[in-house]
Amino acid sequence: MLQTIVKQAPKQTIKVLAIAMMVAGVTACNDDDSETIITPVITYGEYGTDTALTLARDYSGRYMGSSTELAAAQYMKQRMTFGDNGNEVILEPFTFVASRGPFADQTINSQNVVVTHKGTENTGRILYVGAHYDSATQYPNYIDLEGLDDNASGSGVLSELVYHFNGVNTADTIKFVAFGSEEGGLQGSKAFVESLSQDEIDNAIGMINLDSLLTGDNMYANAGDNSYDDDGNEIAANVKLREAALRIANELNLGLQVNPAIIPPGADEPYKPLGVGCCSDQESFDSIMPVVAFEATNWSLGPDFDGYTQTDNPDIPGGYSWHNPDVDNEAVLTQALGEERIKQRMSSFARIVTELIAEQVQAESIR
After folding, report:
1. 4 by DSSP, 3-state: which?
2. What residues pair up with 293 in beta bridges, in sequence order?
3. Cα(205)–Cα(125) distance, integer angstroms
4. Which helix (H) or strand (E) holds 247?
5. Count of CB atoms situated within 10 Å of the CB of 356
6. What's the predicted TM-score (pTM) here?
7. Beta-strand pair 107-117/88-97
8. How far apart are alpha carbons 367 and 84 in whole angstroms?
9. Peptidase M28 domain: from which residue to which, for each copy (predicted)?
């Protein structure tokens, strides 16, 4: 929903941008030779919530290679297309052989949805922002999986980020990617990375990933496996996106954490080192560029402190919702987490990531 702020200013060429939303201003002439500047202000989380709920309600069972996955990809393309703004929005098909699950050893056809927001300065630099839109097949009734948390939520925020940057000048290029078949072994992101040229890799700013943003007790931003050198020293260049995200969240008074690297009883080391995440599409990128992975879970819960236990909420059986059609759905999550959780989380992640992207690609703005 759009709201408007109206104010008077001398007649001049004005580029208006509400930095929180990065939406271009609109002007209208008045009788007194002034201009009314109408600056759209968007309520964070609304566009993404609409996307996420539609994916869950209308595209349940969007598992790898299915007709519903293809339909969900076409829906994501629709949600990330905003008129003649210069963005290129395409479906990129890919093929792989499934290695596990009910389709093991079968050839699977899937697709990524790629939005290219071209930079204005010809820097050659590119920031990649992604989320997978498919659902899992681990449970027998996978055809009924709404996947609201995993990962309609991340896909929803992704669509909102494209919306926020629509028509905004950025020095550097942004590629927003909705990945297919993540649940089949990160297949969409692997195919995308394999398609990158050496020049694109060399000029990459980094990759931002969004996965499972609702169920977990806490919000996290973790870096990748390339965070430390062989001697265990943190590599500043490879954790820059995570550190920027933490600073922005702190400025916004939004609680954002990192994996605390708790060592399970009887083990010699944590599942992942301090501030390092796991198990989503950022892993396809983190050997070639800095990454940051946004998620909601609870890395302080056991037994293995691996981030897989999302919550101690008694209304979430077993402490996690992902992949389970009986839990990862709108009805159960709303009942367990409350009516406001979806909007609140979508808003918080959208705020943080919008500002992170704006910083990284040098978005033109007037505060």
Report:
1. strand
2. 209, 222
3. 6
4. helix 240-251
5. 25
6. 0.89
7. antiparallel
8. 26
9. 112-236
